[in-house]
Amino acid sequence: MAGPSFEEWISHLGLQQIDDPQIDKPVYRKTSFDVLELSAEIEKKISTSLRNARDRRKIPRSKLAPMLGLSDQVYNRYENAVSRPTVGRLLHICEVLNISPAEIVYPVAPHLWGEELAEAEARKSITREICYING
Questions:
Q1: Which of 75, 133, 128 is nearest to 103 (CA)?
Q2: How far, CA to CA in Å, does 8 sit from each of 3, 11, 17, 102?
Q3: pLDDT tens-digit series, residues 18-74
Q4: Distance CA 64, CA 70 (A)
Q5: Is the pTM for the entire model greater than 0.85?
Q6: 16-18 and 27-29: which strand pairing?
Q7: For 80-109, how does the pLDDT look when each residue is reduced to its tens digit (9 = 90+)?
Q8: Where along the chain do its domains lie?
């Protein structure tokens, strides 16, 4: 009763092996609507999502950074994909910007919201409406 093999888990979860130059071992990922992205591309998209969320709220970086207990230069590294925020820091950013973490993650991984782009967009829209009603 060893359970499914490693390969069976890979298949069951719908993962594909990728060789990411930033990771010294093979990793397994789901495709994002037929595109497998490397970690560097993901980090760039998260940085862009952070900048876009801040811009939509019209909060200057020089005002946001101190609210997070950071210098402008440190926060700038997050928005330029030089440094990666921890999950805790990312949640703090979402609190201060009064946004859902989904607003940061969706542009990076829409495939987590649905099997097809139209389904993902519909779920994102519904989630936004629920957050708006309750927020």
A1: 128
A2: 9, 5, 13, 30
A3: 888 888 999 999 888 877 788 888 999 999 999 999 999 999 999 999 999 999 999
A4: 9
A5: no
A6: antiparallel
A7: 999 999 999 999 999 999 998 988 999 888
A8: 1-30, 37-134
Rg value, the chain, Cα: 17
Name which of 15, 14, 83 is nearest 47 in CA terms. Answer: 83
Domain 37-134 has CATH 3.30.450.20: no
SS (H, E, C) the chain: CCCCCHHHHHHHCCCEEECCCCCCCCEEECCCCCCCCCHHHHHHHHHHHHHHHHHHCCCCHHHHHHHCCCCHHHHHHHHCCCCCCCHHHHHHHHHHHCCCHHHHHCCCCHHHCCCCHHHHHHHHHHHHHHHHHHC
**CB neighbours (10 Å) of residue 120?**
19
